[in-house]
Structure formats: C-alpha cells, structure tokens
Design brief:
heterodimer; A: alpha/beta; Glutathione S-transferase Yfyf (Class Pi), Chain A, domain 2; Rossmann fold; two-stranded parallel sheet; B: alpha/beta; FAD/NAD(P)-binding domain; 5-stranded parallel β-sheet; 17 helices; 27% helix
C-alpha cells in the first residue's frame, strides 16, 4: 500500500521525532508514505478567514497535488491537518470560491480530496495493525491528550466528538496498552502563548499533566507538535513553578505505535524527547 | 343578467391619495353589468354601510362589489350589510384596492388603472356567484383534554365547571404532571403539591369529569363538533373498580425499581402508585420489572395480599371509543437530556444532577424529606454551583431557544438551598438573568440579597479531580477564568416537548414547529388555537412557560372549547368544494390530494362524496380534478376564467 504523505514544516524542524517514527511505523505495517513532491507551507490556521480567498490558495494547491496520487492524503501534524481539512470544507461549501481560485491556477481541484489523520488511518486498518503488533504494552497506563486542533471546530473537522472523543483511546487499546481517561484531555495546552506569555502556557500545560497524573497515568501521548512541545519541553519550568511536580514522559502516538510494532530504538526519535522516556520504557520492559 | 352595485371606498386618504376615485367610479359605471357605482370616504362606517343597503333596495341590486380593503378585514361587515339590504351574503364580494393597489403604488394613473382592473375582475366573479346557505353541524357537547398536568387539569376543570362533560386522558398512572414533582414555586414559594393536589382531587370528584388515567389517545377522526376518539386504556393488572387504594400490595412487593417520579433518586415497587397523593390512587404493575411477568407464574405476592382480589394478571389493553366536540391538547414537557452535555459530566459524576432532581431533593415529600444531600455520600453540600442555560441558547450544539423558566427556578433553588443550609454557598453561572414576570425581579433581588453569588459567564467543563468536583468557567464581567471547587452541581436544563408525542400530533393532524412545540393558529392573536378548528393548545406543549402562564393559557383554551360546546350547532362557511356527480368518474385523485380527509370515494356509485364539516375550501381538489367535477362553490373554473379574461382584455 502507498499513501500520499504531507509532513508539513514542523516535522522537519521541532517535531522530527514525529516524522521519524511515522516513517518507521508505517514501514513496519507495510505502508509506503509517499511524500508529496515540492510541498510547501499549509498556511496554518490563522489564515482561514472566510473573507480572504488568498489564504485558501496554498491549501488548495496542496490538495490538488495530493489528488494526483490517490484521493487521500495523510497529514500527521494537527495544525496542518486542521488547516487542510477546514480549507477543504470551506471550498466544498463555497464552490464559487473554488471555481475562482481554480481559474487562476495551473492546477485544478474538484474538492474531493480526503484529508486523513494517521489516527483515522489506523482506525480504518485495525486488523492490519493488530496483526503487526509485536510487543505487549499491556500494563503501560497511557493518558491520551487530544488538544484542540484535532477536534474543533467540530462541524468542519468531524474527527470525533469534541467534548468526549475516544479515537485516541481506541488506538491505545488497539496496540495493547491501557488508556486512562482524564477530564482535561481536550482542554488547551497554552498553545502559541508559549511565545508571548510563557507563564500562561506553563500553567495550562501543568494543569493538564497534573490532572493526568492524578488519574494514574504513566505517560501521556499526543499527536500535535505544539502540544507536544508545551507538555514536554516546559516541564523543567513547571517544576520551578511547582516544586512538588514530578516529571512525566510525553510520546507522539507514532512513537508508542512504533514501540508496539517492535521498531528499532534508533528509529523512534526518542533522543529528542526532553523528558526522558527511557526509565518508564525499561520499567515495562519495552526497550 | 344580474344588477350589480359597486361601492368604492376612499379609506380616508389610504386609497384616495393614490387612486383617482372619482374617475374610477365613472369608469366602472360604464362596465357591462354594473347598474350602480358610487364612492364614499369611509364605506365601512355606518353611513357608508347605509349607502350599500339603500342602493340594494332602491336600485334593486342582485349583487354587490365593495372596492376597499382586504376581505379578511371587512368582508363580514359588508356581507352583513348586504343581508340587511335583503341580499344573500355570498353575492357580496370585496375588491381589494388598498393592500393590493394603493398601498403598494405611487403613480396615480397606474394605480387607478390597476384598481379598475381589480374591480372589473371581481364584477366578473360576482356575476356567477350563487346564493349559498351556511353549513350547520350539530355539536357533541363533550370535551376531551389530553394530558393531566396542571394545564390539562385547569382546562378540564374550567370546561366541566361550565357544565360541559369532559374526558381527561392521562398517559401516566396519575395526574399532576411535572408540577407534582416540584418543591416550592417562584416567586411566592407556595408549596407546589399543596396548591396542586386540591385541584387533582377536584378533578377526581367532579361530576362532569371522566378521568381516564394510564391511557393514551390512539386515533382521532372527524372534525369540530364531532370528533370520534379511540383511547387505549393500558392494562394496569389491577381492577380499578375493585381496588380500594389501601396500598398493601406495594408495601409487600419485593421488587424495588428507580422511581421516575423521584427522578431516580428514590425507589418504588414493581406494583406502584407514583407518589402518595396520586389521583387516581390505584396502583399499576410495571411489567418490565414485575417478577410474575419476567418469570411467568412466579411471586404473585401482591395478588395474595390484596384484600379485595383486585390484582388481575390476565388484564388486557382496552380500546375505549368516545365522541367529543372539542379537544384540548396539554401534553406538557420533558427536560433536555443532560447526557448530551458531555462537558458537564452528568452520568459519570454522581453529584452533578439535573434541576428536576434538585426539585426532588428540596421537596418535603422527596427522597431526603427536603434535606439537601449529596447523591454520592449523603453529606450536606456546602457549596453548590448552578449552571443556567445548560443546553439552552446554544444554537450550534443544543437548543437555540430560551426556556424562560430556568432563571427563575435557579434563583428559587439557590434561595431554598440557603434556607436549608445556612452556611452553604450558592454560585450561579448565567448568560443573562431574565426575570420578566410579576414579582420576579423582586424575587431575584431577594435571592442576591440573601447571599447567592451570580457569575456572568458560561461553564466550559465540570470534572472530578481527587474526588472533588471542579467547575471551570469564565467570568465575562472581569474577563477572568474561574475555577470553582463544588460539592454539587445543578444543571438548569431547558424544556423540550414531551418525548414521543409526535405520533399524537400526527393523529390529531395539528402542526408543530422545528423544536416539536405545537404551533398555534396565530402567534399573537390566536395563541390557544391550533390550525385545526376545534383543537386547542394549553401549557408547555405549545412552548416553554411557567405555571401562571400555563394556567392562563389552559383557561383560554377551555373558554375557546366552551364557546363551541355550549352551542347546539355550529356553522361553517359554505364556500367549500363540491362534486358534480354527472362529471365525476370516481378516479379518486382528489381523495389523495385532500389534506383534510374530506373526500371519500363511494364505490357503489363510483362518485366522490364530500364530508362538508371537514372541507376547509383550500381548492386542492379543484385544481387536481381532471374532469372539472370538483368545483369550489363561488370559485368555479368558469368564474376564474372570466376573471382572467377580464383582467387581460384591456391590455
């Protein structure tokens, strides 16, 4: 199987482990990630104003490019996923804009491309994944953190129920680990405030992690590079603000999937995780 | 040929400013068939009407056209005048030169020309108008009230007190409805049961009221004055005639089930009355939980202990047939499903409860005898967060509308809680506080004076952390996020029409809106009537409202019903569709298009018969009939044809 793959900029910079582990685990399940040739920035979520057609050009061109492959494109970054999926929704709602942009481009796009998150792909291929799982993650208690971009706005994204989603937990169960529900799994991590008001982001992320810990999780998994950064890299500062805070490892969903699939350690990208994941993995005999 | 008189009204300047009435009068005088034409400043005034009456007599007119306003305004006025002049009222027609002409044009020449065309087409119509007699129908002097909540109770009592026999059908085992579940009522803090139960007893003892509880209306046929109703009396497995209501059966019954009346906070037995003051006070058996029905033949304790042998496991559902002249629909409301508000944790956090559950906790006859206690551990909550608009005013996710009563009942909840737990803290999150109603703002002031804290903002999430309930919200006045630790959370849920009442709406052939609330005939001027004559609406089934409003509307609906039911016969407009049996081939197309079931195919004669009381004169059959046999009286094809020709001729 071969599927068009749009990594987005962050997977080549801050979120390299997500890219590395995506390639590793998809190769382990026998799916080739066909990275789109000459891809460029998705435009990110700020640009999606309904009255600005210019901002839809970049997403449209990406979708048109992907369409030449097979009608679906895999997008692991939550920000790119949100941007492309919402742009697609808007272009389908407003065919006049779709026509106007098409008239000005060499490419032509009909609005039918399906933007797929890896978690959706995994949900569609449960049997395949199950058959490839090699390591037993049974006792590893995993808290699934969704963030906002995978879920909202619900009508446009239609990924899962925005208030009580379960797709992540189902994935964790699928690879044999134990999902632990924690109430703040859909609350804000602080997002871009980490740049302008870092204290607010530290507090927001700290609250999430403490809530997860209170519910007994060993580790938190997430899919969004920005959430990952806030939850992982800010833990030193959380500790300074809250001396009693005990650090907790954060994984990309693809890292934990790769572990279950028995991928070699060097392909997991773990060395870039700020909070060391090795102790917990050794404790559960997963390395 | 008919001698036709045309009377042109100035309507002050409403018409005369844009239409040259003098020139128009001269023009119309020349039109074939017009014997007499004149104009006057206010034709609807007494002198104006006298002009019509005198002209009919003096000019020996056979028909009258009044060129003035819309027929909905003054058709009756001028038909009455024509009658006084000695004509049949149906040979008097209105030509609408105000709404259809003067009000919508500026150019006097054009408007005058158009007014002339309008009048001429109506002159053509009236040439073929037949004298008609109103249709008379005998009235069955009995009423049916559906739903035994406060709305149905009030309507039934009002109708019965007017001397009209009334059947009150209630779906559940007892009347009383939602009001019976409430603790105390705003703004006076009357005990709800104390003011309701006397009315319930009055219903049961009223000589003119026949109470049929634990029953549902299955089918309704006929029309105003003569409805035929089928009522399914569900098997209660207790002989209602023999049962004395002694209660030994439910005392001894070994099966305990969550009580619907207690909103799941208390228990009832498998044989039960919903609450001690139930009317009728006769138990029923819940076959979903009764051991005898789950394991056939087992248990039978209730049957063994019953001193009058009233328990009858063989009882079957029964269909009762009744005839009534008018119907009041008072099917009430349910609260919005709290499970849909996933962010508030109802169902997973035991101390997040609904407003209706809180009513039961506050009620002196409730599961805690009026003490406010937590569901989880029975402890007294020291801080309660009340969330207003839980699921209301949220177009994207839940109900778009405001349920009107939640602000007031939440204020009442906070006050009653403070009265029960003096050191307790009541925190209320709100979008707006809406207190329109007599004494309501004063009540709200009293609640804030007594120490309830109001925070303007929505709650985004309720969750449990280390056993504590955390409420996250926004204070939009200070622009800050708020985090409150609470011992209990009460969701002020909105009202929705009683679930599963759609089938009844279809049976009654009345309409409901997008939210399934029953639709009134006019939102301002006919608020208690449905679109079907003879069927009236009362209570929250028509829209969210509080008790005083429900009672007022119920009395309104009752008075509408009484107005019909105290007459021997009622009259209908005769301008309905008939059948020319010589032309009718019995194809039956009109039967399918008739929205009122007014047309039936007589298979012996192979012609259509019309049920005159049902026909509303909509004209669907006339336009569908391939042979022209279905003709609307005084609007036959020939008339329409002549009117069209007349309108086009001059152009």
């Amino acid at each position: 199987m071969r599927i068009p793959y749009y990594p987005g900029c962050t997977l080549y910079t801050k979120a390299k482990p997500l890219n590395t582990s995506m390639h590793a685990c998809f190769s382990a399940i026998g799916v080739e990630l066909a990275e789109l040739p000459h891809w460029y920035c998705c435009g990110t979520t700020f640009t999606l104003a309904r009255d600005n057609r210019m901002s839809l050009i970049a997403p449209l061109r990406i979708l048109a490019k992907a369409q030449q492959e097979n009608g679906k494109v895999l997008v692991p970054c939550s920000i790119c996923y949100n941007t492309l999926k919402r742009a697609n929704y808007m272009l389908n709602e407003d065919t006049e804009t779709l026509d106007i942009i098409n008239e000005h481009l060499e490419e032509s796009y009909d609005g039918n491309e399906i933007v797929l998150h890896p978690l959706e792909f995994l949900r569609e291929n449960e049997e395949l994944i199950k058959s490839k799982v090699k390591k037993n993650l049974k006792d590893l208690k995993v808290g699934c953190y969704y963030g906002c971009l995978l879920l909202r706005p619900q009508q446009e994204i239609q990924f899962d129920d925005a208030e009580s989603p379960t797709i992540f937990e189902n994935f964790v169960s699928l690879i044999g680990a134990t999902p632990i529900d924690f109430p703040l799994k859909v609350e804000c991590c602080g997002s871009y405030l980490v740049v302008t008001s870092p204290d607010a982001a530290i507090e927001a992320s700290y609250k999430l992690l403490r809530n997860a810990q209170g519910n007994g999780v060993d580790a938190v998994v997430t899919s969004c590079p920005l959430c990952f950064y806030n939850l992982d890299a800010l833990q030193e500062k959380m500790k300074k603000a809250h001396p009693g805070f005990k650090q907790i490892p954060i994984f990309y969903f693809s890292q934990i999937l790769a572990i279950a699939l028995g991928v070699e350690e060097k392909n997991l990208g773990l060395e870039q995780n700020k909070v060391s994941p090795y102790e917990i993995l050794k404790e559960y005999d997963l390395l | 040929m008919k001698r036709i008189g045309v009377f042109i009204c100035h309507c002050g300047i409403n018409i005369a400013k844009t239409v040259d009435v003098e020139a128009l009068t001269e023009e119309i005088k020349k039109y074939p068939g017009v014997e007499h034409a004149e104009n006057y400043k206010y034709m609807c005034s007494d002198p104006g009407q006298n002009l019509v009456i005198d002209a009919i007599k003096e000019q020996k007119l056979d028909a009258v056209v009044v060129a003035a306003c819309s027929p909905t305004l003054h058709e009756n006025t001028f038909r009455n005048a024509s009658e006084r002049g000695g004509l049949n009222r149906y040979v008097c027609e209105m030509a609408n030169i105000r709404e259809h002409c003067s009000w919508v044009h500026d150019d006097k020449t054009v408007a005058t020309k158009k007014a002339s065309l309008i009048i001429k087409t109506i002159v053509e119509k009236v040439k073929y108008d037949e004298p008609l007699e109103p249709i008379q129908v005998n009235v069955t002097k009995r009423a049916l009230v559906i739903g035994g909540g406060i709305a149905g109770i009030q309507a039934a009592l009002d109708i019965a007190n007017a001397g009209v026999e009334t059947i009150l059908v209630e779906k559940g085992p007892s009347i009383g409805g939602r009001m019976a579940q409430l603790s105390e009522t705003f703004p006076t803090l009357d005990c709800s049961q104390c003011i309701l139960t006397p009315k319930m007893v009055e219903v049961s003892q009223h000589k003119k009221i026949k109470l049929i509880a634990y029953s549902e209306v299955e089918d309704v046929e006929g029309s105003v004055g003569n409805f035929k109703v089928k009522i399914k009396r569900k098997a209660a497995y207790v002989d209602q005639a023999k049962c004395t209501g002694c209660g030994i059966c439910y005392e001894k019954c070994p099966i305990k089930v969550d009580s619907e009346f207690e909103e799941g906070l208390g228990k009832r037995k498998a044989i039960y009355t919903p609450f001690p003051q139930a009317v009728p006070n006769k138990p029923i058996i819940d076959t979903e939980h009764c051991t005898f029905f789950l394991k056939p033949g087992k248990c039978k304790v209730c049957q063994i202990v019953c001193p009058v042998q009233a328990v009858d496991f063989e009882q079957q559902d029964e269909i009762l047939e009744e005839e009534v002249g008018a119907i009041v629909v008072a099917t009430g409301y349910d609260i919005y499903e709290p499970e849909k508000l996933k962010e508030y944790g109802y169902g997973t956090i035991p101390d997040v409860i609904t407003s209706m559950q809180f009513e039961r906790l506050l009620s002196a006859s409730g599961p805690t005898v009026g003490d406010v206690r937590r569901v989880s551990d029975g402890k007294e909550p020291k801080r309660i967060v009340f969330i207003q608009c839980a699921g209301s005013r949220d177009k994207e996710n839940h109900l778009e509308y405001c349920s009107k009563i939640c602000c007031m009942y939440t204020a009442k909840h906070a006050l009653l809680y403070k009265h029960r737990v003096h050191d307790g803290e009541a925190i209320i999150f709100y979008i707006d506080v809406r207190t329109a109603g007599k004494g309501y703002e004063e009540f709200y002031n009293r609640v804030t004076d007594e120490g309830a804290t109001y925070i303007r903002g929505k709650v985004s999430k309720v969750y449990q952390d280390n056993g504590k309930i955390i409420v996250l919200g926004a204070d939009t006045l200070s622009g800050k996020q708020v985090e409150v630790e609470a011992d209990m959370v009460v969701l002020a849920l909105g009202m929705v029409p009683t679930r599963n009442s759609e089938a009844l709406v279809r049976t009654l052939k009345i309409q409901c809106d997008a939210n399934a609330f029953l639709t009134e005939a006019h939102p301002k001027l006919r608020p208690v009537e449905s679109n079907t004559t003879g069927i009236y609406l009362a209570g929250a089934a028509q829209g969210p409202k509080d008790i005083p409003e429900v009672v007022a509307q119920a009395s309104g609906a009752a008075s509408k019903a009484i107005a019909i039911l105290t007459q021997d016969e009622i009259t209908f407009e005769p301008t309905i569709a008939g059948v020319d049996e010589d032309l009718c081939s019995g194809c039956g197309i009109c039967v399918g298009v008739c929205p009122y079931n007014a047309r039936e195919l007589d298979r012996e004669e192979m012609v259509i018969k019309v049920v005159e009381a049902l026909c509303q004169g909509c004209g669907s059959c006339s336009s569908a009939c391939p042979s022209g046999a279905a003709q609307q009286r005084n609007l036959i094809d020939r008339q329409i044809e002549r009117m069209v020709v007349s309108a086009l001729e001059e152009n």
